[in-house]
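Please produce the structure of this protein holding zinc ion.
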Amino acid sequence: MTTVKIAPSILTADFGRLADEVRAAELGGADMLHLDVMDGRFVPNITFGAVVVDALRKVTRLPFDLHLMCVEPERLIEQYADTADTINVHIEVSPHINRTLDAIRRLGKRAGVCINPGTSISAIEESIPAVDQVMVMTINPGWGGQQMIPEQLDKVARIRRLLDEAGSPADLMIDGGVKTGNIASCVHAGANVLVCGSSVYNDQRSVAENIADLRRAVRA
Ligand code: DX5
Ligand code: ZN
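Below is the modeled complex.
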């Protein structure tokens, strides 16, 4: 049986008390922390960069899964050499993707490639041997709290087949709109790591309760 990992994204956390929010994810049983770095160019928003990630590194032992929503990501990766465990870059802004993935691995990090809803799988197919993770965006990136685009689950299933055919042990991650109501379908499509933003950080329930609910929904 595949072990499913939950990666809370702090994008909808309370940025005024970020350290507490991160500790809550660790105490609540998260498997890693998903960090959304946005540059105001690849996506309209600007979130945070290496200075904040450095500060968060000091408050938790959770692995850091860094999602660079930035143009020219190859210019930024070294800034996360001491903090990130996995560095994910978008194929849409990586003309020399294999060089970038190699550079990430040379830093001793796991290398991930992200693919937007409108990008065809063929864009990443040749890079499968060079990746430790494929991240499928099931929303158009830029904001938390959006609805999942359900058609993207078919793409997840097709990428799962490609990874299996290649004998790749890479993780298959879904980012965007994962909730208790669809998390089982995400796993059924072949994902084994789920980014959960607004389904973990919201006003309805505590971080720990939300993580527990999501885990229960996977098993249901
Ligand atoms: C959006 C980010 C996501 C976001 C997911 O561009 O990449 O990681 O935080 O948030 P939810 O789970 O609310 O869609
Ligand atoms: Zn993300």
